[in-house]
Design goal:
Blueprint: E1 6-17, E2 20-31, E3 35-40, H1 46-53, E4 61-66, E5 69-70, H2 76-83, E6 86-89, H3 101-112, H4 117-130, H5 146-157, E7 164-168, H6 176-193, E8 196-200, H7 204-210, E9 213-218, E10 223-228, H8 230-236, H9 240-246, H10 248-257
Parallel strand pairs: 3-8, 3-9, 6-7, 7-8
Antiparallel strand pairs: 1-2, 1-4, 4-5, 9-10
Helix pairs in contact: 3-4, 3-5, 4-5, 6-7, 8-9
Length: 258
C-alpha cells in the first residue's frame, strides 16, 4: 500500500462545532483502488470526517486533497470537476421520492453531461444492470425494499462513472442477508472496475468482508488510534480499545448463548 498512489490526502484536519473540537489534527491517505473503511464508536466523528472529505463542511484547519486538487482552496470550477469524479451513497440512500428510479439515476447525467436522451437511457440501464436492478426503471423509491433502495442509490452514485465512491453506513437498517449481498456488490464493483471506495461503518461483518484497510477513530482522542488490516488489528493491536471493538462480536455471541 505504501507504494500506491494516494488519491485522497487529509493533512492536519481539525473540526470544531462551537466550542467542541470533534477531530484534532487528523492525517490520512486513501490509495487508488482500495476499499478504505472509517470506523469507531458512536460520536467519534466518522460521518463528520466523511462529510469534510467530500466537501459538505469546511474544516477549522487543515487540507483535503483529492486527485491532486486542494479542496480547501479550489475555485468553483475546479471543485465542480473534482466532484464529478466522486459518487456518494448516503445512509438514507437520498433518492428523490417524486422521481422514478430511472429519473433519479438520469438526473446527474442530465445535469453534468451533454448526452442525448438515448445515450442517457443506455447509461441508466447499464448502471441498473450492474447493481442487479434491471427492469426496475419505472419503480418509485417507495415501491422498493431497503436493500433495493441502497442498490438504486449506488447506481445513481455511479451515474457519471466516478473513480471514487463514498458510503455512509451502507448496511444501516438492513437484515444480515441483505447486508451481506450489498457487501458482495461493493466488492464486485471494486474488483470489476477498480473504483476507490471510502466507507463509514461500524458493522464488523462488513468490515471483515470488504475492507482492505481501516482507520479507527476515538471520541476521547479526537482522532485516529489505529490503522491497518482489520484482521491483523483484531489479533495484534496493543490498544485495548481497538481489541475490544474488533472482538465485541465474540462477547455478543457468548452473551446470546448464556
Amino acid at each position: 500500500m505504501k507504494e500506491r498512489e494516494a488519491v485522497i490526502i487529509v493533512e492536519g484536519l481539525t473540526v470544531r462545532f462551537g466550542d467542541d473540537i470533534i477531530l484534532d489534527n487528523v492525517n490520512l491517505e486513501v490509495y487508488r483502488g482500495e476499499i478504505f473503511v472509517i470506523l469507531g464508536g458512536s460520536g467519534c466523528g466518522k460521518s463528520t470526517l466523511l462529510k469534510h472529505i467530500i466537501g459538505l463542511y469546511e474544516p477549522e484547519k487543515g487540507r483535503i486533497i483529492i486527485n491532486g486538487v486542494d479542496m480547501t482552496n479550489a475555485d468553483d470550477n475546479m471543485l465542480r470537476n473534482v466532484r464529478k469524479d466522486m459518487g456518494m451513497l448516503f445512509q438514507s440512500s437520498a433518492l428523490l421520492g417524486s422521481m422514478t428510479v430511472y429519473e433519479n439515476i438520469a438526473l446527474p447525467l442530465k445535469e453534468y453531461t451533454d448526452l442525448s436522451d438515448r445515450s442517457i437511457r443506455l447509461m441508466v440501464r447499464m448502471k441498473l444492470a450492474m447493481v442487479g436492478l434491471s427492469g426496475f426503471e419505472n419503480y418509485f423509491p417507495s415501491e422498493l425494499s431497503g436493500g433495493m433502495k441502497k442498490r438504486a442509490g449506488i447506481a445513481r452514485a455511479m451515474a457519471l462513472d466516478p473513480t471514487i465512491l463514498f458510503f455512509d453506513e451502507p448496511s444501516a437498517g438492513l437484515d444480515p442477508i441483505t447486508a451481506a449481498e450489498l457487501d458482495l456488490l461493493i466488492k464486485n464493483i471494486n474488483n470489476g472496475i477498480g473504483t476507490t471506495m471510502v466507507i463509514v461503518t461500524h458493522e464488523l461483518e462488513s468490515i471483515f468482508n470488504i475492507a482492505h484497510r481501516v482507520i479507527m477513530l476515538d471520541r476521547g482522542e479526537k482522532g485516529i488510534i489505529a490503522e491497518g488490516d482489520p484482521m491483523k488489528l483484531r489479533r495484534e493491536s496493543s490498544d485495548l480499545r481497538v481489541r475490544n471493538f474488533f472482538n465485541r462480536h465474540i462477547a455478543e455471541h457468548l452473551l446470546e448463548g448464556a
